[in-house]
Amino acid sequence: MSNWHDVGVPTDFSEDEPRAVMAAGEPVAVFRLGDELFALHDLCTHERVPLSEGFIEDGCIECPLHQGLFDIRTGAPRKAPCTVPVRTYPIRIADGRVEVDVAGAEALA
Amino acid sequence: MAETLTTDSGTHAADRDVFFPQPDGSRVPYAVFSSQEVYDREQERIYRGPHWSFVALACEIPNLNDFKSTFVGDTPVVVTRTADGFACWVNRCAHRGAIVCREKHGNAASHTCVYHQWNYSCEGDLQGVPFRRGQKQGDIMLVGMAKAFDPAQHGLRKLRVAEYKGLLFATFSDDTPDIEDYLGPQMLPWVDRLFHKPIVYLGCTRQYSKSNWKLYFENVKDPYHASLLHLFHTTFNIFRVGMSARSIPDATHGLHSLITVTKPSVETNTASAYTDQKIRSMQDGFALEDPYVLGQIPEYEENCTNQIQPIFPQLVIQQIHNTLVARQLLPKGPSNFELVFHFFGYEDDTPELRELRLLQANLVGPAGYISMEDTEATELVQRGTARDGDKTSFMGMGLDAPDQTNSNITENLIRRFWAGYQRTMGY
């Protein structure tokens, strides 16, 4: 069952920096890669720190605490100490609004 | 209690020049048991020197990323099982020196210092530090770690690790020989005897003794005391005429050694042998209600009742009847040590054999029937010698037969130890 939540307009999200939003009480980090938007649960799976405070590099988000990396598209860990995938959320643009489906959180394939 | 004796001038009474009056190790100046100066020199020349310190049984950390906190000398280290084998690193953050790993054992893919969250791989390599790239504050970017900072240069200090048949050793020194050469040809067959097939970890006991670590080394090289100090032995007449003995030093330096006791083959001993012979004390009225604890299920080619084998400086391998132990000896300053008895069995133990091993754990450890007096005796020496550092012990038992290796009424092994110690320490 989908559960779309409005988190802003497309111009709120830039390629340079992730943006922290809340959707139905869940912290979500939203990323832009070119024309596409991606949403990850905004908490590193290694230590408890928001990924949205990290740095974007080559399609990955670098955790500000230990420089571990996650693939922004899939949530897969790309560099130690991160070893557990971070949750991804479906994200879409509908009627000029950006929406995140928190109920539709996907486990990494 | 081992009080610290201090003179008016503030110097410790035992802090005097160390002088061994005999090169044969028969007279040991008591200063070596209480001097901080001697202790510090040992940390450098022995534990940081070309010696392998026993740190763990491999079966204590059976799975990938398992770890154990322990010590090499008094330096805290962590031993981990990695994808490639084993690693050992000094448990001290490369940032500000805090202990990184605060647990005795566990499983962790990485280790984080609580102070500033510096994070290390289980190999000891630095993986990340908080705010390395600085921190965003609105539109401003606050500066982070120095640009020149290279994580590869800030890993934990690594030790060399060697595994020999399930025993793990670590050393700080590049000059330490290969582990097989270090153990040497006199010791190897006896290490092999107890570690000839896969072992399993059964648990440990821990105890502290308010005495110097070398007093325990003397103790495990001293078969002379066994029938005299340990009342359980004499009460139940466990050591008897007709037993054959070995007391063999390591030929290279004398720091390792071996003691064995073997009963005559006619007496292939089980609990029933004790019962049949109506084992009883010399004082009437004492007998074991259940002599099963002194039984022995034969499991080696030579059915020794005892094998006591100190491997300098942190290990004593032990087989007493069917109880198998790797004792770890850890110095804690000049007048304290910790002693950990790591009990093990074999993977293919029968239930009966395993049960007997566990039962016979009662023989050793802090409250062991035949070992509880040992650390009491070493404390008596510590207390008796604290003041007179320039006075010496006298060890003359077997002195006139230095090459005799078939006696257990001898102090040969202790003398060889002290001769080796003098060379190692430059005394």
From TrEMBL, chain A:
Q: Where is the Rieske domain?
A: 4-100
What NCBIfam families does the entry give?
Answer: ant_diox_AndAb
- Keywords assigned by UniProt, alphabetized: 2Fe-2S, Iron, Iron-sulfur, Metal-binding
Q: Read off the InterPro entries from this record.
A: Rieske_2Fe-2S, Rieske_2Fe-2S_sf
Q: Does the keyword Metal-binding apply?
A: yes
PROSITE patterns the record matches: RIESKE (PS51296)
Q: Name one GO molecular function term.
A: 2 iron, 2 sulfur cluster binding
Q: Which domain of life is it from?
A: Bacteria
Query: Which Pfam families does the protein's record reference?
Result: Rieske
Q: Which organism is it from?
A: Pseudoduganella lutea
Q: Which cofactor does it need?
A: [2Fe-2S] cluster
Its recorded name reads: Non-heme iron oxygenase ferredoxin subunit
In the record, the note on similarity to other proteins reads: Belongs to the bacterial ring-hydroxylating dioxygenase ferredoxin component family.
TrEMBL record, chain B:
Pfam families from the UniProt entry: Rieske, Ring_hydroxyl_A
Instruction: Write down the CDD domains for this protein, in alphabetical order.
Output: RHO_alpha_C_ahdA1c-like (cd08880)
Query: What are the entry keywords?
Result: 2Fe-2S, Dioxygenase, Iron, Iron-sulfur, Metal-binding, NAD, Oxidoreductase
What sequence ranges are listed for the domain Rieske? 52-170
An MF annotation (GO) of this entry: dioxygenase activity
- InterPro entries, per this entry? AhdA1c-like_alpha_C, Anthranilate_1-2-diOase_lsu, ARHD_Rieske_2Fe_2S, Rieske_2Fe-2S, Rieske_2Fe-2S_sf, Ring_hydroxy_dOase_asu_C_dom, Rng_hydr_dOase-A
Q: Which SUPFAM superfamilies match?
A: Bet v1-like (SSF55961), ISP domain (SSF50022)
**NCBIfam families given for it?**
ant_diox_AndAc (NF041684)
Q: Which family does it belong to?
A: Belongs to the bacterial ring-hydroxylating dioxygenase alpha subunit family.
Protein name stated in the entry: Rieske (2Fe-2S) protein
Q: Which organism is it from?
A: Pseudoduganella lutea
Q: What lineage does the source organism belong to?
A: Bacteria, Pseudomonadati, Pseudomonadota, Betaproteobacteria, Burkholderiales
